[in-house]
Amino acid sequence: MMKVRSSLVAALIVSAAVVGAAGLVPGKPAFAAEEKKVSKELAKTLKAAQDALNAKKYSEALAKLKEAEGNPKKTPYDEHVINMLAGAAYYATKDEPNAVKAIEAQINDGFLSESEIPPRVKAVAQLNYRLKNYDKAIEFGTRAIKAGYADDEMYTLVGQAYYLKGDWKGTLKFEEAVVDSQVKKGQTPKNEALQLLLSACVKLEDADCTTRALEKLVAYYPKTEYWQELLYTLFQQPSQNDKTLLQTFRLMSEVDVLKRPDDYTEMASLAIEQGSPGEAQHILEKAFEKNVFADQRSQDKNKRLLASAKKAAAADLASLPRVEKDAEAAKTGDKDVALGLAYLGYQQYDKAAEALSKGLSKGGVRSEPEARLLLGIAQLKAGHKDEAVKAFHSVKGDAALERLANLWSLHAKQA
Questions:
Q1: What beta strand segments (E) does 297-346 contain?
Q2: In terms of Cα–Cα distance, which of 141, 144, 114, 147 is closest to 129?
Q3: 166 φ/ψ sector (left φ>0, alpha ψ -120 to 50, else beta)
Q4: Residue 35 has what pLDDT?
Q5: What distance in Å separates the CA atoms of residue 201 and residue 224, rounded to the nearest whole number?
Q6: Which residues, in sequence order, are CB contacts of 389 under 8 Å at separation 6+?
Q7: How far apart are CA 126 and CA 148, in angstroms?
Q8: Which residue in 149, 147, 206 sits closest to 176, CA to CA?
Q9: How open is the CA angle 65-69-71, to the nearest 5 degrees?
């Protein structure tokens, strides 16, 4: 969470006090307009308060200001100067609640010029945030935003104020608007805004919202930890089936967030079941190289699975010439797609892309979205990034695979 810049607030209040003191001597008004000068009745008292403030005698200054406040002859402008001086004195004595009241009074009394209002509005927002008066922080932060003089820090302050007061829906609504605005302007959304968006989704226990927020983080800040959070979120969705689960594992392996031993085991098992024993062999060999399987029981189990994958891969490789002939003679594309999947598992990416493209061009493919996703993966792995992105964008008709294709496309553009 952000910290308030004390130096900004202090400088603002002290400078305000100095300006306010300029016209304390009768006959020398601080402003040209008649209504903007200290009255003769309070000039002496306010001058004494100013002198005490300059001498850092804050108790004495506040006593004089209370005396001026109690004078029934004080004018509205006298009140304005009292608040300017009081703000400085209260802030110097670390009485921030009264300091912020004094600044807010200045903003609302009508004596400030247009250029003097913005820094005070921001100071009030900052001080209220520090005092945990989050509603007030939001009020004045929003005022700065609507008036067009809010900086990035002010946007962060408002979002965090919503969050810290426990208004998760308010946080989500505010941050979504901020992020959408930045995207429309062609800007990269701020990491702070995306993090608050994600945190609000988590607090609301909204799985879809959380996934969308993580997708935005991955799109603009492709850190490994964001990929891991996102893909494990997809991995846990109840709509997963074996086909989409293996595709999720493929992307996890690609961006190097496949970590858990059981995930390697399950990915290899699914690959064997779905006709890609070469892929199963490759992923298990990768796991052993990374020392993923720590205990002896897990090692033994996966050594047996690896041996099974190698045996299946050897038989599969031996059958490929026959499969190629069958695919060539087939009128529909399913056999070409199966051939492409096999080549993909053996890291023969150009051959995989050729077979998958041929299968899709023939038509009659059992799962066209899956075939197009595999085509994009093969093209990307073969180094044909632009073609891969086009293939990923062509995945339609299966919501889960479309989402994975969009993520592969993001990864392709970032690679």
A1: none
A2: 141
A3: left
A4: 61
A5: 20
A6: 376, 409, 412, 413
A7: 17
A8: 206
A9: 120
Domain boundaries, the chain: 6-117, 224-414
- Residue 254 to residues 109, 219, 283, Cα–Cα distance (Å): 62, 16, 11
Q: pTM of the prediction?
A: 0.80
pLDDT bin (cut points 50, 70, 90) of residue 13 is low
What's the token pair of residue 172?
Answer: 């989500």
283 by Cβ neighbours in 10 Å (0-12 / 13-18 / 19+) ranks as buried
Alpha helices, DSSP H only, in 185-260? Answer: 191-203, 207-220, 224-235, 242-254
Q: Judge contact between 159 and 173, C-beta under 8 A.
A: no
Token pair in block for residue 231: 């893909």
Q: Which CATH class is domain 224-414?
A: mainly alpha
**Are 231 and 267 spatial neighbours (Cβ–Cβ below 8 Å)?**
no
User: Where are any strands of DSSP class E within 328-381?
Assistant: none
pLDDT of residue 54: 87
Q: Which two tokens stand for residue 2?
A: 């952000």
DSSP state of 115: G
HEC readout, 135-162: HHHHHHHHHHHHHCCCCHHHHHHHHHHH
pLDDT > 70 fraction of the chain, expressed in percent and rounded = 92
pLDDT of residue 37: 84
Residues 215 and 76: their CA atoms lie apart, in Å, by: 55
Which residue, 121, 143, 199, 191, is CA-closest to 167?
A: 199
In three-state form (DSSP H/G/I as H, E/B as E, the rest C), the secondary structure along 337-350 is HHHHHHHHHCCCHH
Give one word for 94, left, alpha or beta, with left for phi > 0 and alpha for psi -120 to 50: left
pLDDT in tens, 362-376: 999 999 999 999 999
Q: How many CB atoms neighbour CB 99 within 10 A?
A: 25
